[in-house]
């Protein structure tokens, strides 16, 4: 049990690569994770042999990080246990969330909490096209590096190096007096990603049933709802409240329409 007045233990730090295509990049990222004390590397549908000779060549002494990388088939699965997520973007316009400089986004990422010690994650997109808007909306903050507008795209491993260096420079612990039961700013901690996704899934099904959403518009409208909830950083208690409301509304709707399929 944590002693009163002491900072809570540092949450696990995770780097997520979405569909990496270059084994040299993957090996380099594994080495960077070891350099900057990242706890876990997660790979989503890698398009290369992440354990091949080229990847191992670049990993050098970080072979254990490379071999221990966890595989996932979706970003939602890779982030399910995370409470705070920062996604990176090389674009300068059209993002679904505001772009933040590394210091601001990463400081938010590692804010201490006495109530939630779930992992925190930084997500990097594909080498050729980055992250989609839907993938960015699974993050609580978007990070953009200060590159020149004429050519803003960085090599994947170079971007990871810059971001992890910035993260490593942040204080390892916050002063005990800055941490309250609801977090450093008196706000409840964001819920785990898997809880938010389950709530959104429940809500989408209900809204389809009552005719608020239609198949051809549901994706765009739910993206707006996701955007709103991400900016609000909805907590676990708030997710439970909304899920309870959705279930009660579904029950009431089905009670009035007994022929409706659950």
Overview of this structure, please?
The chain is an alpha/beta fold and 262 residues long. It folds into 2 domains: 13-178, SPOUT methyltransferase, trefoil knot domain (Alpha/beta knot), CATH 3.40.1280.10; 193-256, Helicase, Ruva Protein, domain 3 (Orthogonal Bundle), CATH 1.10.8. It is built from 10 helices and 7 strands. The chain has helices spanning 23-35, 53-59, 63-67, 75-79, 102-109, 133-136, 156-169, 193-209, 218-232, 236-256, and strands at residues 13-18, 40-44, 70-72, 84-88, 99-100, 120-124, 141-143. The chain has a 7-stranded parallel beta sheet. β1, α1 (23-35) and β2 form a beta-alpha-beta unit. The longest helix has 21 residues, at 236-256. The protein is elongated.
Quick summary of this structure?
The protein has helices spanning 23-35, 53-59, 63-67, 75-79, 102-109, 133-136, 156-169, 193-209, 218-232, 236-256, and strands at 13-18, 40-44, 70-72, 84-88, 99-100, 120-124, 141-143.
**Count of separate DSSP helical elements:** 10
Q: Give the integer mean of the pLDDT values.
A: 84
Total individual domains: 2
Mass-distribution shape: elongated
Backbone CA Rg: 20 Å
CATH topology heading of the largest domain: Alpha/beta knot
The percent of residues in helical segments reads 40-55%
Determine the N-to-C terminus distance. Answer: 44 Å
**CATH class call of the largest domain:** Alpha Beta
């Amino acid at each position: 049990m944590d002693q009163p007045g002491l900072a809570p233990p540092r949450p696990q730090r995770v780097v997520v690569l979405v569909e990496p295509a270059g084994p040299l990049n993957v090996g380099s990222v594994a080495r960077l994770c070891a350099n900057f004390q990242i706890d876990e590397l997660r790979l989503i549908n890698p398009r290369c042999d992440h354990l091949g000779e080229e990847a191992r060549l670049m990993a050098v002494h970080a072979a254990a990080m490379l071999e221990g990388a966890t595989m996932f088939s979706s970003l939602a699965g890779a982030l399910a246990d995370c409470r705070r997520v920062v996604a990176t973007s090389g674009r300068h316009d059209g993002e679904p969330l505001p772009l933040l400089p590394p210091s601001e986004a990463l400081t938010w990422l590692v804010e201490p909490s006495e109530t939630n010690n779930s992992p925190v994650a930084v997500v990097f997109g594909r080498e050729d096209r980055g992250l989609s808007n839907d993938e960015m909306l699974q993050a609580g903050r978007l990070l953009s590096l200060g590159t020149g507008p004429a050519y803003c795209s960085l090599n994947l491993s170079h971007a990871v190096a810059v971001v992890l260096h910035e993260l490593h420079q942040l204080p390892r612990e916050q002063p005990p007096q800055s941490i309250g039961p609801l977090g450093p700013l008196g706000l409840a901690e964001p819920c785990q990603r898997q809880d938010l996704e389950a709530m959104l899934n429940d809500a989408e099904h209900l809204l389809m049933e009552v005719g608020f959403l239609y198949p051809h518009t549901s994706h765009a409208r739910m993206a707006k709802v996701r955007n709103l909830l991400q900016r609000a950083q909805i907590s676990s208690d708030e997710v439970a409240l909304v899920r309870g409301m959705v279930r009660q509304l579904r029950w009431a709707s089905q009670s009035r329409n007994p022929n409706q399929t659950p």
